[in-house]
TrEMBL record:
This is Leucine-rich repeat-containing protein 57. The lineage of its organism: Eukaryota, Metazoa, Chordata, Craniata, Vertebrata. Signal peptide: none annotated. Keywords: Leucine-rich repeat, Repeat. SUPFAM superfamilies: L domain-like. It comes from Pseudonaja textilis (Eastern brown snake).
Amino acid sequence: MGNSALKAHLETAQKTGVFQLTGKGLSEFPEDLQKLASNLRTIDLSNNKLESIPPFIGKFSVLKSLALNHNRLTVLPEELCKLKKLEILHLNNNQLTRLPSSFGQLVALKTLSLSGNKLQTIPVQLCSLHHIDVVDLSRNQIQNIPDTIGELQAIELNLNQNQISQISPQISRCPRLKVLRLEENCLELSVLPQSILSDSQISLLAAEGNLFEIKKLRELDGYDKYMERFTATKKKFA
């Protein structure tokens, strides 16, 4: 992509606070973007060939939304965690295996999408995000849901299309979790904690495509309590 085209994009971004440059085959994060570090609220560099994010990402002090879907990222810089205003982070279809250790410092983060990466565990840092609403970890290589999950503040957790065969009963303690998606994993009915049904906030449990017939779920103790929450929620949105 030519310098003149990039310059035009930068000039527009200066006026609008939005920098969008998708599907242009970029292999590097544009250096010149630094000049707009104090006024960009949205950056979208999806569908490119980025292999890394430079440390200067930490300078974007008013950034609210960052989309880097469909790139080639294998690691994220710790500096990303300085973005105290960041509310939306989309990193679908990259090659990430972990998150930066200080990821929990993204205090404003509400939506996190990490679908289609190479995560093998649920990052413990997510439990430090106090304003998180939606976490999408679908299409990764996650094998179990650990005890730490009980501290997760999310309202919706998507774990579809992983390799999950174990779930900690602590998931029932998530204070705000309403929607739990576990479709197409490796779950036996016997490993599904009964407390999800009888003693949690979860009002939508999606569990099709596992190692049990979905109708067997209805025979479990606590299913009636789950259905009460399910029905109440449906009425609310009807």
